[in-house]
Amino acid sequence: MDFVQTAPVLGNQYRDDRVLRAYLERALPRAVHASIEGDLDELGAHAAVAWNEARTRMPSEPVLTQWDAWGARIDHVGITPVWQRGAALTARYGLVAAGHETTHGAHARTDQFARVYLHHIASEFYTCPLAMSDGAATALKASGNSALIERALPHLLSRDPATLWLSGQWMTETAGGSDVGDTETIARLDGDGRWWLYGRKWFTSAVVGEMALTLARPEGAPGGADSLALFYLETRDATGRWNGIRIDRLKDKLGTRELPTAELHLDGAYAEPVGEAVHGVRLIAPMLNVTRTWNAVCALATMRRCLALAFDYARRRHAFGRRLIEQPLHRATLAALQAEFEAAFQLVFFVTELLGRVETGASASDDKALLRVLTPLAKLWTGKLAVRIASETCEAFGGAGYIENTGIPQLLRDAQVYPIWEGTTNVLALDVLRALGANGIDGVTRAAGALLGEAGSDRHGVRSALDAARNWLVAHSAHRDALESGARGLALTLARSF
Ligand code: MFK
Ligand code: FAD
Predict the structure, then answer these.
(1) Which intervals hold domain Adaptive response protein AidB N-terminal (predicted)?
(2) Ligand 1 centroid from CA 421, angstroms
(3) Quick check: helix, strand or coil at residue 76?
(4) Are the C-beta atoms of 246 and 73 separated by less than 8 Å?
(5) What is the rounded distance in angstroms from the CA atom of residue 133 to the CA atom of residue 87?
(6) N or C: which end of the chain has fewer CB within 10 A?
(7) Over the stretch 138-195, which tens digit does the pLDDT of each residue have?
(8) How many CB atoms lie within 10 A of CB 376?
(9) What is the pLDDT, as a whole number, of residue 453?
(10) Ligand 1 atom having least distance to the Cα of 428
(11) How far apart, in Å, are the Cα atoms of 11 and each of 232, 311, 338, 361?
């Protein structure tokens, strides 16, 4: 008889997640925890069902149709069946709304991100536009532009799929990706005081969204980042036609293939400035920090899925006379990955707690400085770790881990996006330098000191890493190139120590 290996089985991803459950019991008041547990349990069950369904049907990808049968330009993007159910699930579980609702006060973000963490893999990266929608809502709130807040927030934070909107975040151009100061898109003001955008956006994920925040240079403004303005636009006009937008093509990507990422031309797209028509990077920064938090949470979700599958498989697969989980070296290999995942989990969910505290005004004065530094650290560290854990997971499955319809290779291909978008590892390491400068390190050190006081003295690593960082910053303060070339090492050391 030919031997047939049993496939790994995924159980309810909430019930089976010891790390998440223990964390939520500790971090949330009992009443908050009790009120959200039913939803988390449903999301955990859905995660397992969605995984099994994905293994038993043909993969599906978005399709761009540029012209209709009669020659009209339509630029229609057909989305996958899972994406078609995305709005209903988002509204039902408040995947964006929960982070902004006041019901759970300072715990709103922790509640929201627990939901996102459970749902991410099942969503086929529908979480990407959700992250950008959350980021747009946050940036609009911070801008104080009451007209745009009244117009867009009820849609972005809707609990009704019929009125829910998705937002894009259109920053990257052919010249200006990390360095958005090279943006070539021009904003032209007409005689009636209305702005129109002309240019090319090179990566626009979830182009099916109803709105976007985007950067453009007001005509005649000088070069560089500071003179860019942040604009709000709706992708279609009142009749449903594209608002001066042409979709050139969808990207042919290594991973995230269910997510439609388009190249666009803006050819007279009507747009409204979010604030003054200048300082666009400063205005979009709240969006960046929120989407970077989503990225860290979703990278954790990839790690958790990889480890759930690898541990289950190790209990089913035999080699050299015993189950893999009984082989000391295989068990130690998985345990080391699990330990790294758990450390990253604590860092990321601590960032969600801090975000909730800062946004609701429940924070100590230095929490803002700590959040400012920990956000890029959490993003850059988890992006790298997710790729490593996904790669080790392929290996933990042996040859099966290299075979497409086991589902394992996709985890690795998808993971590779986390360190690239929303700021690469190096760009975020430089952002950490930016945040630690201008006395940021003092605030971080005080906030860390206060936390360590609360938590007891068992986290001396943070203190010594911060002291070493301070000494290093002082020693190199006059040598910008030396500072930059050491920024990645500094960031990774700090991320590991928190
Ligand atoms: C499923 C997972 C979910 C994830 C969804 C992801 C979807 C994918 C979407 C994308 O990839 S969108 C494109 C993302 N692109 C980037 O992240 C660009 C990366 N580049 C950077 O982050 C650069 O650091 C940046 C363009 C922001 C700044 O470059 P500059 O030109 O050197 O800016 P500068 O002069 O240092 O900063 C301008 C202002 O912004 C300063 O404030 P002031 O004007 O008040 O002095 C900075 O302090 C402020 N700033 C910059 N980054 C900030 C920030 N403030 C707060 N937080 C930050 N992170
Ligand atoms: P570059 O800026 O050319 O970077 C190339 C390399 O140089 C990187 O390794 C980088 O770390 C390094 N580097 C750059 N500057 C420095 C420096 N000063 N010091 C040290 N190293 C440096 N963008 C959007 O705006 N909206 C979207 O919706 C969107 N969706 C995306 C979806 C996917 C699947 C992908 C892959 C990308 C998406 N992006 C989107 C684009 C993404 O944000 C950019 O690709 C990313 O910010 C990097 O920019 P770049 O491609 O121009 O790389």
Answers:
(1) 12-159
(2) 12
(3) strand
(4) yes
(5) 12
(6) N
(7) 999 999 999 999 999 999 999 999 999 999 999 999 998 999 999 999 999 999 999 9
(8) 27
(9) 66
(10) 22
(11) 42, 12, 18, 38
| 292 and 241 Cβ atoms separated by less than 8 Å | no
| pLDDT for the residue numbered 455 | 58
Q: Which of 217, 288, 428 to mutate to test the pocket of ligand 1 (most atoms within 8 A of CB)?
A: 288
Q: What angle do CA 371, 376, 379 make, to 5 degrees?
A: 115
| Residues in contact with 127: Cβ distance below 8 Å, sequence separation at least 6, in sequence order | 95, 116, 119, 120, 294, 298
Q: How far apart are CA 415 and CA 437, in angstroms?
A: 31
Q: What are 120-136's pLDDT values in tens digits? A: 999 999 999 999 999 99
Both tokens assigned to 234: 């709706």
**SS3 of residue 53 by DSSP:** helix
Rounded average pLDDT over 21-29: 98
Q: How confident is the model at residue 247 (pLDDT cuts 50, 70, 90)?
A: very high
Distance from residue 39's CA to the centre of ligand 2 (Å): 35
Tokens for 54, please give them.
């994905």
